[in-house]
Amino acid sequence: MEHTPIACSHHDHDHCIQDALEAARQLCIGRGVRLTDLRLQVLELIWQNHKPLGAYTLMEMLAKANTRRVAPPTVYRALDFLLEQGLIHRINVLNAFIGCPSPTTKHQSHFLICRACGIAIELDQPELSQQIIGVAQDAGFQVESQSLEVSGLCANCAGNPGQQEHRHG
Amino acid sequence: MEHTPIACSHHDHDHCIQDALEAARQLCIGRGVRLTDLRLQVLELIWQNHKPLGAYTLMEMLAKANTRRVAPPTVYRALDFLLEQGLIHRINVLNAFIGCPSPTTKHQSHFLICRACGIAIELDQPELSQQIIGVAQDAGFQVESQSLEVSGLCANCAGNPGQQEHRHG
DNA sequence: AGATGAAAGGTTATAGAGTAACATAGCGGG
DNA sequence: CCCGCTATGTTACTCTATAACCTTTCATCT
User: Fold this and answer.
1) Alpha-carbon Rg for chain B in angstroms
2) Chain C positions with a protein C-beta closer than 7 Å
3) For B46-88, what is each residue's pLDDT tens digit?
4) pLDDT digits over A59-101, tens only?
5) CA A106, CA A85: separation in Å to the nearest integer?
6) If we measure between CA atoms, which residue out of A8, A1, A3 comes closest to residue A153?
7) CB of residue B38 closer than 7 A to nucleic acid strand C?
């Protein structure tokens, strides 16, 4: 399975996180926007693994980490910022959020979502984006954003029905 | 614009509705499932136009039509049935539901959604479905369902920015 | 026709997701 | 140092969806 995405294989996820956070820092500096403690903390929590996190799960994690109550607007504002900067994506079928591994390159939101282990794998397929734009244009439709969410079983879970948990390095 | 979908052009929508309801009746008879009064009524309300309807909007319409209170589980159960039978689709980005014009043919949920007039146009592009399945397979992913939701401007709204309401015949 | 069991619908309460509105704190440039 | 802007805190609320339990409807068998 030579095309298996990184998210699907056992990898050094600490490194994965650190890379993402460092990239986010650089990106925000470059754009002159503020990656505050809260925003960084939310981004880090989202990057804990490759499974999309709900806003309320995130809220609880924040509350536990900061040993005080955290209200919904706090987390939603951080999420809005991260979405605007392209640092995370929203998974509509799950009402949840996941880190974007390539925030600097403009791209559409295309995901494979495993119903067994919950992992969400971001696709990087410009040709697919282009084909979708083409189909839309045939209907006279002017595309502004795309959301493709494919549900099913990831390579791990389809192959090993017994052991359906994604592990990190 | 020869490929303009029916939903995007001025058409005889009463006929559109009647066709859909009759198709639904036949489909349910064929499958031995019950298209009850409530379910039929919900389906008819959803087919009122080509804009996705939220469950709570639907609830109010039901309450008004039946001159009594209708609680959420009532409408959600009807929606679940219609979804299972493929008579409607769920538009995740809108938390809303829309009628399926071809419930008998197995197909994926691919939509163009206009942010100006709210219309949702269902695509029928088996090649696109196949390409998505192919991309997923390259990643060892086994596809069970697809949700493609493309947002932007429909032909009407992109062409006539002044008059952004979809009309029916 | 009457019994019966499953499916459908009614009712109440609550969980989960997201936002409005307003108050406070922190930072950045004059 | 002060002013103004941005970020965060707080309260309350709306919208979306489901759990649990009860009643009704309806097809089928006798």
Assistant:
1) 17
2) 7-14, 16-21
3) 999 899 999 999 999 999 999 999 999 999 999 999 999 999 9
4) 999 999 999 999 999 999 999 999 999 999 999 999 999 999 9
5) 11
6) A8
7) yes
Structure tokens at B39: 């379910």
DSSP assignment string, B59-91: HHHHHHHHTS---HHHHHHHHHHHHHTTSEEEE
pLDDT at B164 over 50: no
Residue B131 forms contact with A (CB below 8 Å) = yes
For the stretch A12-60, pLDDT in tens is 788 989 999 999 999 999 999 999 999 999 999 999 989 999 999 999 9
Nucleic chain C: which protein residues 59-118 of B have CB below 7 A from it?
A: 68-74, 77-78, 81
Q: Contacts for B53-60 with beta carbons within 8 Å, 24 or more apart?
A: B53/B96, B53/B97, B53/B98, B54/B94, B54/B95, B54/B96, B54/B97, B55/B79, B55/B95, B55/B96, B55/B97, B58/B97
Taking the Cβ of residue B151 and every Cβ of chain A, the question of whether any pair is shorter than 8 Å is answered with: yes
